[in-house]
């Protein structure tokens, strides 16, 4: 029978010193508790319940729309057992195993959850828990065993005797229970040093009920890493980044100075992608085979097809770059910038909601907003689409093989038909017919001998 997972995430997180609830702090672009939720579902959970406290409404909204996910609120933080008890209304009729994890330890692995469920079932135990051995067990609950190695209880740091403090086997806080959990939770009291309802007291309660306590030991102490402060958040981020980089390198991605490259779990990379130092890849960015991204480029929710090239210091957001197209260095592709195959965008060119057709070029210093540029057209340096009249945005439509001379302003709405030619420095506010030359600037006048006269050198 499939299991359920309860994630305890009602703690205050005061050490983060933030207005944002701790469990919503982003870790590689994804909220902390999102890792626990994804791990829970990946383990095959039928239902997932998150116990939230501080900022409950905000947490709920962040994950709205997840099926089989519910939230319960723990109004007062009276301890981990009390937190778990809040999930009872949702799971009272659930007959399968119930896994409990902590919302601030995002590195807990899927296999840890599944092997706890397996162990509970195989050993017909009432409760199964994870344990670890640490050089320095300070702060964690210590596991007490009898001479036969049977687990007797957990003792919290605050309540431990000096002899118990020396125990190196600890409780990482990940458990699995049978369906009698809710009955047993009622027996937990708060007579301890912290005056809290301790969840690990269930060990003693299950044992007193004559049920077996099973355990599995994990060697991966990295799984334990919890986030209580900004520094720990950065540490966990470092671990996750290393995992991600190793994963993609094993898939054939070349990273130059990998430790300088930032990428998020939602990013997808094909073999033979090359990433130069300082590259930042965020959101649903997808890079095709052989794509090269130059140093310090930032790509957010951007697709680059096989063989596309993003040169250094280019910033792209919601952009699409087709095969053989390239952008940068120092280009800016804003949402809905679209380069068709072989299109080229050079330095200090900004595109927003603009499409460059096959082989079209905007080599330097231009702004193309709400524009369509036909294939093989050339946009000169300094060309600006004046797309905004102070109230509304207007479109600029440029046909095929059009030449727009440097420093021209195209005042939208405007249409330049195929093969049109705009003379440099023009202010264009009327459509240009196919094949026509448009020139819209003051005619030049040369005044002979002017300079000499001005200097008083009369002949
Ligand atoms: C807990 C365990 C300890 C274990 C450690 C592992 C208890 C009493 N102790 O201690 O044995 O070694 O985890 O990390 O359980 N929470 C609530 N509501 C509350 C209190 C806590 O939702 O009233 C949540 C927190 O948000 C957190 C989790 O439960 O995600 C653990 O709480 P925390 O206070 O961090 O427990 P520890 O002192 O670390
Ligand atoms: Ca903790």
Describe the secondary-structure layout.
Elements: E1 4-9, E2 26-27, E3 30-31, H1 32-42, E4 47-52, H2 56-62, E5 69-73, H3 80-85, H4 88-91, E6 98-102, H5 110-122, E7 127-133, E8 141-145, E9 151-155, H6 162-165, E10 169-171, E11 175-177, H7 181-185, H8 202-208, E12 213-217, H9 230-250, E13 254-255, E14 262-263, E15 268-269, E16 274-275, E17 280-282, E18 286-287, E19 292-293, E20 298-300, E21 303-304, E22 309-310, E23 315-317, E24 320-321, E25 326-327, E26 332-333, E27 337-339, E28 344-347, E29 350-356, E30 361-364, E31 367-373, E32 378-379, E33 384-386, E34 396-398, E35 403-404, E36 409-411, E37 414-416, E38 421-422, E39 427-428, E40 437-438, H10 450-454
Parallel strand pairs: 1-4, 1-6, 4-5, 7-12, 13-16, 14-17, 15-18, 16-19, 17-20, 18-21, 19-22, 20-23, 21-24, 22-25, 23-26, 24-27, 25-28, 26-29, 27-29, 28-30, 29-31, 30-32, 31-34, 32-35, 33-36, 34-37, 35-38, 36-39, 38-40
Antiparallel strand pairs: 2-3, 6-11, 7-10, 7-11, 8-9, 8-10
This protein binds uridine-diphosphate-N-acetylglucosamine and calcium ion.
Calcium ion (CA) binds near residues 104 and 226.
